[in-house]
Amino acid sequence: MTTGATVRIEPECLVHGSKLPEPFSHEAGVVASSVYAGGHRVADIPVEEAKAWSGKPGHVVWIGLLEPSTELLERVRAQFDLHPLAIEDAGKAHQHPKVEQYGESLFVVARTAQLNDGVIAFGETHIFVGRGYVVSVRHGASTSYAAVRARCEACPTVLTNGEDYILYAILDFIVDNYQPVIDVIQAEVEQLEDRVLRQTLHRSEFERLYKLRRELLKLRRAVAPLVDVCHRLEHSAVLPIDAEMRPLFRDVLDHVKRAQEDIDSLREVLAFAFEASLMSGQSQQNEITRRLAAWAGILAVPTAVAGIYGMNFDHMPELKWAYGYYMVLGGIAAICGFMYLRFRRNGWL
After folding, report:
1. Less Cβ crowding at N or C end of the chain, within 10 Å?
2. Do 60 and 54 form a contact (C-beta atoms < 8 A)?
3. What is the average pLDDT value for the chain, to the nearest integer?
4. How many CA atoms lie within 13 A of 30 on its CB side?
C-alpha cells in the first residue's frame, strides 16, 4: 500500500526495551489514536479527525481499540468507509483467523494467546489496513500493543514504510507471543514425561495430561490458520501489499510454522506419555495379579490338606500314628517351600 519505500530494519530498531511516551486516550475503548508522517508521530487525534489526516499524502493514522462498543466501531467505519461485514466481524470475538480484501483495504483476523494460572487464555485481534490508516481491534486475552507502537516509533526509518509495516509489526508481535506459552507448556510436559519413566502417574497428573493435550489442540487451531494468512500476504498479487514489504511476512510465516511444529511435537510427546503411563499401570496390575495368583497357589496346599483331614472319617490309619501330625505339617511346609521357590525363580514373587 505504501509506495516508493525500501524496507530497512536497523539493529537498534529491534530492541524490545524502547521507551516512548504513551499516547493519550480520548475515550473508553480507544487505546491510542495517532498520526504519523515520515516515521514520526505528528499528533494524537480524536477518531473524528482520522479521515482528514489519513487523506494527506505521506500520513498514516494508527488507531488501537480495545473491545470497542458498536457505536465506536460505526464511527470508525464512517471515517475510513470500512465494509459493514468487516465491522460486524470486528464486533464479535469468535472469528476464525483469516485475511479478506474489500476493495483496496484488507481485514485481517489473528488469534492471541497467553497463560493465566496454567490455562491458555485466547483472544482476538482484528486489523483494518488501507491507504493511510491502520485500525487494530483487540478482544479478550491479549498483550497490549503499546510495545509494538513504541518499537516502531523508536525507529522512524522502518515506520516510513507506512501501514504495510505496521501490519507486519502487529502480526509479528502476536506470533512471537505464542512462544512463551509454548515454552511454559514444554517445561511442564518434560516434567510429566520424566515422571512417567520413573513411576505411574496419579489421577491428577492424568487429568493434567488430558487438559494439556486439549489446550494444545486449541492453540494449534489458533496458530495453524495464520500459515495461510501469512502465505497470502507474502505471495498474493491481488492483495494491496507492496512487493518490497512481502518478504517481511515470510519472516512471520517462518515463526508461525515453527510454533506449529513445536505444538505438534508437544502433542506427540503427551500422547506418548499418556500411552506409556497406561502401559505402566497395566504392567503394575499384571504384576500384582501374578503375586496374588502365586500366593493363592501356595495357600491352596494347606487348605486342601486341612480339608481332607477335616472330613471326620473314623478309619484314617495315620490318625493313630504318633508322628502323623508332624509328618503332615512337614509335607505341607515342603510343598509350599518348593512352590515359593519356583514362583520366585519365575518372577511371580
Report:
1. C
2. yes
3. 82
4. 21
Confidence category of residue 21, pLDDT binned at 50, 70, 90:
very low
Per the model's pLDDT, the better-predicted residue between 122 and 327 turns out to be 122
Output the CA torsion sign for 201, 204, 205, 209.
Answer: positive
Give me 339's grid cell. 512352590
What single string gives the DSSP state of each residue in 36-90? EETTEEEEE--GGGHHHHHTSTTEEEEEEEES--HHHHHHHHHHHT--HHHHHHH
Round to whole Å and give the CA distance between 283 and 264.
Answer: 28
- 138-170: per-residue pLDDT in tens? 998 778 888 899 999 888 888 888 899 999 999
- Whether 221 has a pLDDT exceeding 50, the answer reads yes
So where are the chain's domains?
Answer: 1-176, 286-345
pLDDT at 10: 46
Answer for the pair 233, 241: CB distance below 8 angstroms, yes or no: yes
Please give the Cα distance from 159 to 60 (Å, whole number).
Answer: 10
CA distance 177 to 159: 21
Q: Is the pLDDT of residue 9 over 60?
A: no
Rounded to whole angstroms, the Cα distance separating 312 from 180 reads 80
CATH classification code of 1-176: 3.30.460.20
DSSP structure string for 193-257: HHHHHHSPPPHHHHHHHHHHHHHHHHHHHHHTHHHHHHHHHHH-SSS---TTTHHHHHHHHHHHH
Q: Please provide the distance, in angstroms rounded to a whole number, between the alpha carbons at the two ends of the chain.
A: 77
Phi, psi of 237 (to 5 degrees): -80, -10
Residue with cell 520424566: 194
Q: How many CA atoms lie within 13 A of 334 on its CB side?
A: 6
Q: Read off the pLDDT of residues 249-289 as tens digits, 9 standing for 90 and up.
A: 999 999 999 999 999 988 888 887 777 666 666 666 777 88
